[in-house]
Specification:
The protein has one domain: VC0802-like (2-Layer Sandwich). It is about 20% helix and about 20% strand. The strands form 2 sheets. Strands 3-5-4 form a 3-stranded antiparallel β-sheet, with no helix packed on it. A two-stranded antiparallel sheet has the order 1-2. The two termini are about 20 Å apart.
Length: about 100
Amino acid sequence: MTQTAEELSIVCEQSRVPSGVRSETDWVGLKLEGPFPFAMTGVLASFLQPLAEAGVPIFAIATFDTDYVLLKRDKLEQALRVLGAAGHQELPSAGPLG
């Protein structure tokens, strides 16, 4: 959840969004296995750059220990191919969140 003077944004399971609330649907999440030390730079950029070059829109969320990248479900296969080609590996216990 984030809030500014102009908006309130809540990221939650699609099934929990009340009817009539403006929302974006059909997102899946990829978790970047962390935690990453704050002094380590470029981790998220190394993940996002190949997606940007391939034209895959994302929504990034960072927590204290972990980064998540949300993308539209219909872009998941393309994103996984692009990330694999860039040297990122999908862990057996990881994968899409949604």
